[in-house]
Amino acid sequence: MARTPFVAGNWKMNTNKASAIELAKGVAKGAPAGVQVGVATPFVYLDAVGQALAGSKVQLGAQDVYFEKSGAFTGEISVEMLKDLGVAFCLAGHSERRHVLGESSELVGQKARAIVAGGLTLIHCVGEKLEQRDAGHTLNVVQSQLEELRGSVEDPNSLVIAYEPVWAIGTGRNATDQQAQEVHAYIREAMGRMWNPDFANRVRIQYGGSMKPDNAAGLMAQRDVDGGLIGGASLKPDSFLAIVNAAK
Ligand code: 13P
């Protein structure tokens, strides 16, 4: 089954309004055919970046969302608000939200469900900490993070999994091609059990964690690696587009 690769930038808490617009325009200008491309920007720049991307193939994404529809949730943002600004996809369960901001598995599951129910594409992030890998628990951790999706997703096109080992994020120490492929293959197998093999074959699984222009081709050549979720290297058009081109 040929899956269209999907490379998304996660800008995290970086850029300002002017640099966000400039970065978006640079990405829009160079985005090639044959790869789905997106950028997940800070909330406050979604509108401006959406306008900068208008008419291009690059999709607008959000890094987080709250699961309630509206109401007294000071500081939070709803799926409807994201859709209002033209957002196409949204992350849930990023390791920084789980481990720095303290989001529980239950909250991640509620967010994932709201994203899919609202009609956005979900990028559901999973991945183990170093001590979990060292203890041999990688596959159990990933399996339990996939369980957060149980009962929430029916259409394989509405779901993307990002495997991001926590020890590889922002460290310059990427998973090897083999380490990535091993976990990606396991994720596809586990999805085959949770849904069915056809569903599992259609879902894109991105790798994330220190993906750079010089390691992207090797990682994305792996059978079950269908693109990337890029942090640091997504903050410059040149390095991000080099990774996008490596996915073709
Ligand atoms: P880096 O590419 O900076 O390691 O970040 C990966 C990531 O967390 C993307 O969501």
Lay out the secondary structure.
Elements: E1 6-10, H1 17-30, E2 36-41, H2 46-53, E3 59-62, H3 79-84, E4 89-92, H4 95-100, H5 105-117, E5 121-126, H6 130-134, H7 138-146, E6 159-163, H8 177-194, H9 197-202, E7 204-208, H10 213-220, E8 227-230, H11 237-246
Parallel strand pairs: 1-2, 1-8, 2-3, 3-4, 4-5, 5-6, 6-7, 7-8
Helix pairs in contact: 1-2, 1-11, 7-8, 10-11
What does this structure look like?
This protein is of the alpha/beta class and 248 residues long. It has a single domain (6-12, 37-47, 57-246), classed as Alpha-Beta Barrel (TIM Barrel). Helices cover 42% and strands 16% of the residues. The chain contains eleven helices and eight strands. Strands 1-2-3-4-5-6-7-8 form an eight-stranded parallel beta barrel, surrounded by six helices. Strand 1 (6-10), helix 1 (17-30) and strand 2 form a beta-alpha-beta unit. The longest helix is centred in the last third of the chain and has 18 residues, at 177-194. The chain is globular. The model has no long low-confidence stretch (mean pLDDT 98). The site of 1,3-dihydroxyacetonephosphate has 14 residues, from strand 8.
CATH topology: TIM Barrel
Which stretches are poorly predicted, pLDDT < 50 over at least 5 residues? none
The helix count comes to 11
Give helix and strand order, one letter per element, not per position.
EHEHEHEHHEHHEHHEHEH
Considering DSSP H and I runs of 4 or more, what fraction of the residues is helical? 40-55%
Number of domains: 1
Cofactors and ligands present?
1,3-dihydroxyacetonephosphate
Distance between the termini: 16 Å
What strand line-up does the widest sheet have?
Answer: 1-2-3-4-5-6-7-8
The CATH class: Alpha Beta
Task: Calculate Rg over CA atoms.
Answer: 17 Å
Number of strands: 8
**Strand fraction:** 15-25%
Taken from the alpha-carbon principal axes, the silhouette is globular
Mean residue pLDDT: 98
